[in-house]
């Protein structure tokens, strides 16, 4: 069921670091991204695929994790991502692609879920990641997708109307994600 897959497709931030994600799998996920809609069909997004542990270690320090969890500095060694997909904008083709990026990364993360993997979009990226990746001037980093086999439980919670939207962790380290209730976000139903 699509509904179940979408529910399962959460942001995961703790992984089995030593369980590799094959390059073929990363390529499959980018293929799903490629098939998404694109404004004016320009398709300005490009990708760098990484599953080499030594290179993963160079990317990791440049990422910001779970801003609402103030006491958590991000995944510890052994629970860090096993792979990354870096999403880039080719500025020769377009000066922005936020809608495209949402579509492509959702396709990609749904595909990861289907394969028993999990991921997290990371927009909090230090500018120095450009140098690590030795990017040409026309390529701009938009997001890094961290990927791997999740080792954390995530609970989707119905948020009380007007309640807090901040995600949080309970004493058992379950990550809770409040979602606004349907009746709060549908502001009109104009039925026939
Ligand atoms: C555009 C975008 C940027 C994000 N950037 C980060 C980030 O820098 N660090 C992080 O830990 N999570 C990041 N996230 C994950 C969000 O925190 C997460 O989507 C949100 O808490 C809801 O959880 P869910 O994805 O499981 O529904 C980002 C999500 C999106 C859509």
Descriptive account of the structure:
This protein is α+β, with helices and mostly antiparallel strands. It has a single domain (2-152), classed as NADH Oxidase. The chain has 6 helices and 7 strands. The protein has helices spanning 2-8, 23-34, 53-59, 98-114, 129-133, 182-185; strands at 45-50, 83-90, 118-122, 139-148, 154-158, 168-169, 175-179. The strands form 2 sheets. The chain has a 4-stranded antiparallel β-sheet. The chain has a 3-stranded mixed β-sheet with strand order 5-7-6, with no helix packed on it. Strand 6 and strand 7 (175-179) form a beta hairpin. Helix 2 (23-34) packs across helix 4. It is globular and about 50 Å long. The mean pLDDT is 97. Residues 10-11, 13, 64-66, 120-124, 167, 177 line the site of flavin mononucleotide. Flavin mononucleotide binds at residues 10-11, 13, 64-66, 120-124, 167, 177.
What level of helicity do the residues show?
25-40%
| Total beta-strand segments | 7
Query: Pairing-aware structural class of the strands and helices?
Result: alpha+beta
What is the string of SSEs from the N terminus onward? Answer: HHEHEHEHEEEEH
Q: How can the largest sheet be summarized?
A: 4 strands, antiparallel
Number of helices: 6
Q: By CATH's scheme, which homologous superfamily applies? A: NADH Oxidase
Domains (count): 1
Termini separation comes to 28 Å
CATH topology: NADH Oxidase
**Roughly what is the average pLDDT, rounded to an integer?**
97
What small molecules accompany the polymer chains?
flavin mononucleotide
Q: What top-tier CATH class fits best?
A: Alpha Beta
Please state roughly what percent of the residues sit in beta strands, choosing from under 5%, 5-15%, 15-25%, 25-35%, 35-45% or over 45%: 15-25%
CA radius of gyration? 17 Å
